[in-house]
Amino acid sequence: xxxxxxxxxKVLAPPxxxxxxxxxSPSKEGFDSKNIYNAALIKERNTxxxxxxxESQDDDITGRIGLALSKDGVEFLRHPEPIIEPEHDYEKxxxxxxxxxxxxxxxxxxxxxxDGKVAKLCLATSKNLVSWKKHxxxxxxxxxTNNWTKSGAILPMKMPNGEFKREYIMYFGDSNIxxxxxxxxxxxxxxxxxxLRPRKEYFDNILVEPGPPAIMTDYGIVLIYNSAGMHGGVKxxxxxxxxxxxEDPTKLVARxxxxxxEPTYEWEINGWVDNVVFIEGLVEHEGRIYLYxxxxxxxxxxAYWE
Length: 306
What we know:
By secondary structure, this protein is mainly β. The protein has a single domain (18-201, 265-305), classed as 5 Propeller (Tachylectin-2, Chain A). Helix content is 1%, strand content 46%. The strands form six sheets. Strands 16, 17, 18, 19 and 20 form a five-stranded antiparallel sheet that branches. It has a four-stranded antiparallel sheet with strand order 3-23-22-21. The chain is globular and about 50 Å long. 47% of the residues are buried.
């Protein structure tokens, strides 16, 4: 269980520990030979399953999704071929940035479908983590951002009370974060007003974007989020925590004043996109909470809480 302290609207989290090296780097050749980053994680029995974004040196596709498995959560064995590739016009330039939950016997994967101009939040389902059925963009239109919806973090349980009782919720978007709700995890309706925005005087002063799937806790609904901000004239991506009310997922209860994760190592500072740490995967494994993140849009790193 994630241990937080909520004090006067502030989230206080224990310090994260980071491995000083990437746990995965680009391959010498193949679909993940240029960049490998922004991974979704889920645990099946005693195996940690990773679905990661990969780019090849051989073309201009901005993302395919690869599969890797691990027993200890640190050393991963990669599948040699991607398991999800661009097929449709809305994703013809890339399938990117997966996030995964399991409800019942079905896996639900949100990902970014990029057509070269617009990044749309898309959905796919699977029974076995290898064969995926694509359901297309989650929203036909989203006027608030000219249809740029990009990413979604689902809470993998129905809301027990409140306005969305017996429905699922999802935090989604890029720039601001919005809320959507669904009765079946396939068809979603969105709320028009953002539930989380950038803050001028803080680390997240340019944009905010969901991180791993949301978590229901005693404190409220915990959303680890990614952000970008200007710091000394340099744009940097850092991560924070937001907590929403257990019954009203639009109501922000508390938020990080300082980032929980930021670029410090050379491989997080210099890469395909400099000064980036970007979390999308979280699992509890062997007494730790593991957070998996992209480093400088080129590597996959690992941070953890005991």
